[in-house]
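Changelog-linked ticket: SAJ example.
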Amino acid sequence: MINIIGLGYIGLPTALMFASHGVEVVGTDYNKELVATLNAGKTTFEEAGLDDLFNEAVNCGIKFSTEYQSTDMYIVAVPTPYDKESKRIDPAYVIASVKQVMAVCPKGATVVIESTVSPGTIDRYVRPVITENGFVIGEDINLVHAPERIIPGNMVYELLHNSRTIGADDKAIGEKVKELYASFCQGEIVVTDIRTAEMTKVVENTFRDINIAFANELVKICRSDDMDVYEIIRIANKHPRVNILSPGPGVGGHCISVDPWFLVGDYPTYSNLIKQARLINDSMPDFVLERIYNIMKENGIKEVSKVGFYGLTYKENVDDVRESPTLQMLESMERHLAHGVKVYDPFIKADMVENQYHDFEAFLNDVDLVVLLVGHDEIKENMGKLKGKVILDTRNICSIEGTYRL
Ligand code: SAJ
């Protein structure tokens, strides 16, 4: 039996995937409400294919509990927030989980850390917890790092098909854990050591952050000299070795906007490019606000209350708002005492911000300038309804004539 600790965005789909492929699973989370919801037969966030996978896993006998189980295999998938000041990882949840595992596990158990951690975290924080509990790593407890790679919005598909990395002290244990993941994972599973696995994960997200930053810097260059950045990227990408990503209002989510800071925090002397990329992406919400200000002036729109933000989530077709560029824009406006902007997002059902609408038509009726911040399918299917509005499209999804872009 595997005890999966942490039933959030990564732990839950992973637990369901194992269970629906015949592995006995108990999912543990300290959040009583969350466990009660799952036990009542409901999932806790929206994700394509998650409900079907959940039903399958329940039929296969998955169990959810607030208690840690005594077993020989643990997968820890708890959050690893970062300290906004020091830019360093906060390993508190991982440490607390491993401590609780140590309190119930038998000798010979394997502990797999799935949570994203900065390089060296396992050496610095996880190993001491195990040894302080009187266990010898490699003899009594096997330690493994198996970072996830799935993208919100396409998690179920990517869990099945992506390649994975398993970092282990002991190759044989690495192979054993590889076998376990191979129960559902059809991609290549590479076995390496723990530090390499830690670093690889952070490097992957840093790579994407830097590439998005390049696209965002191009936006600024082109805007300053009246060039069409989208046409330039489109043509440049026809070169067989060029693949420029899409500019946007900023980089949100709990991964790409966070992980590169681990490298900046730990290696400040060497991480100049990585830091600049972070700063460029973090500057985008303010860049969009400046664009809005200019477009308002050009169109004689005097009141912020006549401006509507479409999209609160950090990207399209997910209900996750962590580090979302829209929230960053709202915070920035708040600091500048600019109140009254209207907000709508079909994925956010609860009241989260001021002047939030839950009805698209009502939202449209009340605004003159619509700022498209997230490219949900919903807006793509209803684009025609924006006709007659002044539009600022930060995602290059609207083909209505006269639409402003970044
Ligand atoms: N974005 C752009 N332009 C682009 C692509 C993305 O502005 O061309 C923005 C998005 O709108 C969003 C942010 O970047 O605000 C991040 O979105 P994303 O879709 O690129 O990535 P995440 O954060 O949802 O998931 C990433 C993935 N990492 C990589 O693609 C290297 C995923 O595979 C990881 O599992 C995940 O981070 C994670 O958990 O680490």
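Closing comment: Example verified and attached. The chain has 14 helices and 14 strands. The longest strand covers residues 109-113.
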